[in-house]
What does this fold into?
Amino acid sequence: MSNSFRKTLHDEVIQIYNNLNTNLHFDLSKTFRSQKKILNKRLLPAIKSAINPSLKAYDTEIMKVIKQLHKSWREIWKLRQKDRRIEKHNRKQHIASRKDQKLGWRQKGLLHMVSIKDKLLTDCHLLDDIS
It folds into this structure.
């Protein structure tokens, strides 16, 4: 499964899940394993019937997305149960996202310098050849 297909499927399942009746939603206070039979009988068919027909996905792929959703949402739910833990979690997430963003900017800048054959890079390259 390609990354773009996985992302599309993930986004589609989230959108469908959020629009479903709340009695079909999973219970965050329970583990995924304890709800698996109910999810297979009620949630999976509801999502499959509402999913875009052009997305050909197996039940296992959809269940992986549902399991990942449950895992991340349950983790956040648990953190909210404890005082101040959610603030720490949000801060960690922000820092990680910011690091990825900065790395992306640096890569784009370096690729631009290479594509325009920046003098600074050619000067540095010459120094590497000498030593």
Q: What stands out?
A: The chain has five helices and no strands. Residues 85-115 form the longest helix (31 residues). The radius of gyration is 22 Å.
